[in-house]
Amino acid sequence: MVIIMKAGASAQEVGAVVKHIEQVGMRAHLSQGEERTIIGMVGDERPVDRTVFELMSGVDRVVPILRPYKLASRDFKKDDTVILINGAHGHPIKIGGAPNPIALMAGPCAAETRDQIMESARAVKQAGAHILRGGAYKPRTSPYSFQGHGEDALKWMAEARDTYGLAVVTEVMSPDQVPLVARYADILQIGARNMQNFALLNAVGLSMKPVLLKRGMMSTMEELLMAAEYVLSNGNYNVMLCERGIRTFETYTRNTLDINAVPVLKALSHLPVIVDPSHATGKWEYVTATSKAAVAAGADGLIVEVHPNPALALSDGAQSLTPERYTKLVTQVRRVAEAVDRTI
């Protein structure tokens, strides 16, 4: 259920509602707008008498949320969530909610060497990116494939952030890694294979760091939103949903970009939606076209793989753009953004 307080409800009235929610064994989650406060009730609602809340001072109305995901739902929060990233050099980055600019995240699949990550950071920054992506820990299909450089890679990305004024997004693979990765990264990425790793979702929720949650390759949109609910239920409301392609019967691309997911997720949820055209297609030739489609569909950001020399990449070289190609992508995407009244 969602309890909508009257305009101008006092802190004491809000506090009384929160106290009663906790007394009946539920958890309260506040969404405070400019005029009204909305209180979400999370837990088993069956024994709760909603009329008790309707009669409390300061309460306007009580609205049931029928969807299984509560905090991620538009019913809980009508306005788009805007996530504030503390970028380097004191320049904050806002993700989500028009008219905020479309966020550009770019960089190599894996941080292979210090020189490679520094060169990548310089190139994507020059092209217009706001956030550097790169993998320190790599979940690979084969145990014999390159698995990442761990903390050394985190240090390289943090140095690149400080040098070029970029925020950093990188993947965390297990709950025990969260404190270490959170020390270096600005955004914690949950990869597609870990979307339903509930212990990990709880851990990043408790970290209070912004989270980029990738959709599982065979997961429905509702399952993605339920995964986001785990993070939100721990009090961390800084969650971005990422569409990165789903597995279908098609073999000409690595995955199939579900462009439907962008408008559908934005209708169902207030959370920002990011698109990963690199993993969606698996081939650099299609990344620019799908990036333009994602922006036209309303995506709040793009996360694109860029490598100084894709032919020598230790992972995902086939889907990585060169810096020159990424610069052209940004130019074209900017035109599409302007056509739909957005900016980059």
Keywords:
8-stranded parallel β-barrel; 4-stranded antiparallel β-sheet; TIM Barrel; alpha/beta; single chain; 34% helix; Alpha-Beta Plaits; elongated; 344 residues
Description:
- Strands 7-8-9-10-11-12-13-14 form an 8-stranded parallel β-barrel, surrounded by 7 helices. Strands 2-3-1-4 form a 4-stranded antiparallel sheet.
- It has 344 residues and is α/β, with parallel strands linked by helices.
- Helices cover 34% and strands 18% of the residues.
- The chain is built from 11 helices and 14 strands.
- It has 2 domains: 2-63, Alpha-Beta Plaits, CATH 3.30.70.1140; 83-339, TIM Barrel (Alpha-Beta Barrel), CATH 3.20.20.
- The mean pLDDT is 93.
- Low-confidence spans: pLDDT under 50, at least 5 residues? none
- The helix-strand sequence is EHEEHEEEEHEHEHEHEHEHEHHEH
From the N-terminal CA to the C-terminal CA, the straight-line distance is 37 Å
Instruction: Enumerate how many helices there are, as a single number.
Output: 11
Question: Shape from CA axes?
Answer: elongated
The major pleated sheet works out as: 8 strands, parallel, barrel
Query: Based on the structure given, which CATH architecture of the largest domain is correct?
Result: Alpha-Beta Barrel
Mean pLDDT: 93
In angstroms, what is the radius of gyration? 21 Å
Strand order of the largest sheet: 7-8-9-10-11-12-13-14
Structural class: alpha/beta
Helical amount? 25-40%
